[in-house]
């Protein structure tokens, strides 16, 4: 049994939605360099729909895969739906993460939430 | 495929494998049995012991075969602690960057009432002998300092430390797991009382190692049972493994200088190439260093993702990041030489084999450069550093 599922390795090797959104209206950054994981989410929200989302991550295979998957799950979604994204959903979409890597999916959930909260605070 | 993780483990040599198979087929007796088949196995065992002893300038009676380096470390340290406790001496000196087999054994002893002093290893990853002397007290029963560090490869001033320990009548143990088979080791010239070694680090089998204990030191058993290893380590001897280890060890020492010179040149070529990556740094002294070891920190990226992408590109290596250590902290070795967390997470250890070529080194340089650049391209930390929002550390 390999360390990571095929899905995780795919999202790690070919991360979706990598980059920045220059005119993002919701930005969230979570984690810290001390613990070795940082995720930054950029959102472009129009009419309460997530029109575009991009991410940057400093972290391990699970961290990169989790952030990538999280962006896929919320792209095109209404903001209120995206707010409900759970780390469990991210991990499940990745066909599971090792126990000791679950915190990476939690970080992805927190990054999304942080970006949405930023958007709401700007309104 | 470029296997650059020889510090983690090595492939068994053909000679070692052949020896092992031969012994398994022809010498499967129990060395403690009286009949000829058993005695022949005993002969193989003692021949291996003599080989191992001669390589480190010890007497065969001073060699105990174990299941590996960890067991040898445990037995050596617990022995010294027990001997010390008998005389009311419960202080032990070691270093901040020992292998966990040493550090965790010391932690257990701490729980049992011992006091442990961990010496600073400074930015260059080297212990200063004078600092060992200063740390020695009336109640010090053991100094244990690794011969060469497993992560950053720095080689410690063992002879000087041994001399100081002799002067003060303190037992001196060295975890030589990374040194044995790669650099000269002479237990007499270097004033060593006890030494740990592991077969799979020099093309021998996994699950086999040995502990050298100077004549006169009363070893305390970790494993009780039969009378094997002169009563010092119970359990039917792993004759095939031991024989294979001895062959691998002898081969390593017969070719030591030639191999060391060759690998060192490739190591230095690799270091020069990796240095060109901006905001990177070599970990540990460049001179007092194992011929095979290269260890770098790259700012702004994380080690596990670096390793996985390198594996995709056919290079096997390891890292000191938290993700690879399975804890929240990055490698205690990198922290001990003063690397801060941010930078320690982005570490890479490459440990070369004796057959590494210049072409392979150049390939490693180009692929590491490529992967670091790629990971930096979407690292929020790197973005902040480049934008001037954070100050570069390296």
Structure description:
The complex is a heterodimer of chains A (123) and B (394). With 123 residues, chain A is of the alpha+beta class. Chain A has one domain (6-122): Sufe protein. Chain: A, CATH 3.90.1010.10. Chain A is built from 5 helices and 3 strands. The longest helix of chain A has 21 residues, at 102-122. The termini of chain A are far apart. In chain B, helix 3 (69-86) packs parallel to helix 4 (100-111), helix 8 (256-275) packs parallel to helix 13 and helix 9 crosses helix 13 (358-377). Chain B has helices at residues 14-26, 36-55, 69-86, 100-111, 129-135, 158-168, 239-254, 256-275, 303-312, 322-325, 332-336, 341-344, 358-377, 380-386, and strands spanning 2-3, 63-66, 91-95, 115-119, 140-144, 171-175, 194-198, 209-213, 280-282, 293-298, 315-316, 347-351. Chain B has 2 domains: 56-224, Aspartate Aminotransferase, domain 2; 256-386, Aspartate Aminotransferase, domain 1. In chain B, strand 3 (91-95), helix 4 and strand 4 form a beta-alpha-beta unit. The chains are: A alpha+beta (123), B alpha/beta (394).
Assign the CATH superfamily of the largest domain in chain B: Type I PLP-dependent aspartate aminotransferase-like (Major domain)
> Quick one: overall form of chain B?
globular
Radius of gyration of chain B: 22 Å
Widest beta sheet: strand line-up of chain A: 1-2-3
Note the beta-strand portion of chain A.
15-25%
Q: What is the helix fraction of residues of chain B, given as a range?
A: 40-55%
Whole-number mean pLDDT of chain B? 97
Summarize the largest interface: chains and residue counts: A-B, 27 and 24 residues
Q: Helices and strands of chain A: which structural class? A: alpha+beta
* Element string of chain B (H = helix, E = strand): EHHEHEHEHEHEEEHHEEHEHHHEHH
CATH topology name of the largest domain in chain B: Aspartate Aminotransferase, domain 2
Indicate the structural class of chain B.
alpha/beta
């Amino acid at each position: 049994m390999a360390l990571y599922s095929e899905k995780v390795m795919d999202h790690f090797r070919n991360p979706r939605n990598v980059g920045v959104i220059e005119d993002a209206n919701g930005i969230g950054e979570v984690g810290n360099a001390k613990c070795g994981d940082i995720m930054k989410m950029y959102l472009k929200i129009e009419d309460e729909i997530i029109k575009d989302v991009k991410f940057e991550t400093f972290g391990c295979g699970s961290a990169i895969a989790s952030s990538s998957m999280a962006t896929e799950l919320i792209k095109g979604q209404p903001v209120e739906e995206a707010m409900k994204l759970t780390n469990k959903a991210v991990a499940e979409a990745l066909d599971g993460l090792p126990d000791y890597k679950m915190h990476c999916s939690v970080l992805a959930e927190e990054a999304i939430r942080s970006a949405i909260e930023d958007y709401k605070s700007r309104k | 495929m470029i296997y650059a993780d020889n510090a983690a483990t090595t492939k068994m040599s053909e000679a070692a494998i052949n020896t092992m198979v031969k012994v398994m087929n022809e010498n499967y007796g129990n060395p403690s049995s009286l009949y000829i088949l058993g005695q022949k196995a005993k002969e193989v065992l003692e021949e291996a012991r003599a080989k191992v002893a001669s390589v480190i300038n010890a007497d065969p009676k001073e060699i105990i075969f174990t299941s590996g380096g960890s067991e040898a470390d445990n037995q050596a340290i617990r022995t010294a602690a027990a001997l010390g406790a008998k005389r009311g001496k419960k202080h032990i000196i070691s270093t901040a960057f020992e292998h966990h087999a040493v550090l965790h054994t010391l932690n257990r002893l701490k729980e049992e009432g011992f006091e442990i002093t961990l010496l600073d290893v400074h930015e260059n990853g080297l212990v200063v002998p004078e600092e060992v002397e200063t740390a020695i007290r009336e109640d010090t029963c053991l100094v244990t300092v690794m011969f060469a560090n497993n992560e950053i490869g720095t080689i410690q001033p063992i002879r000087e430390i041994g001399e100081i320990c002799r002067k003060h009548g303190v037992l001196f143990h060295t975890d030589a797991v990374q040194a044995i088979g790669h650099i000269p080791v002479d237990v007499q010239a270097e004033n060593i009382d006890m030494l740990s070694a592991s077969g799979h680090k020099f093309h021998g089998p996994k699950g086999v190692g040995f502990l050298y204990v100077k004549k006169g030191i009363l070893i305390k058993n970790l494993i009780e049972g039969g009378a094997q290893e002169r009563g010092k380590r119970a359990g039917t001897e792993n004759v095939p493994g031991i024989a294979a280890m001895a062959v691998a060890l002898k081969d390593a020492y017969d070719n030591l200088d030639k191999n060391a010179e060759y690998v060192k040149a490739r190591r230095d070529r690799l270091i020069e190439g990796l240095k060109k990556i901006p905001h990177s740094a070599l970990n540990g002294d460049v001179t007092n260093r194992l011929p095979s070891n290269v260890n770098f920190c790259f700012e702004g990226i994380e080690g596990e993702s670096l390793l996985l992408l390198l594996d995709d590109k056919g290079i096997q290596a390891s890292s000191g990041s938290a993700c690879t250590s399975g804890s929240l902290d990055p490698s205690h070795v990198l922290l001990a030489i003063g690397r801060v967390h941010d930078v320690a997470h982005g570490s890479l250890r490459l440990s070369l084999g004796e057959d590494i070529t210049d072409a392979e080194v150049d390939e490693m340089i180009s692929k590491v450069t490529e992967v670091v650049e790629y990971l930096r391209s979407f690292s929020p930390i790197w973005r902040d550093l480049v934008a001037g929002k954070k100050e570069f550390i390296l």
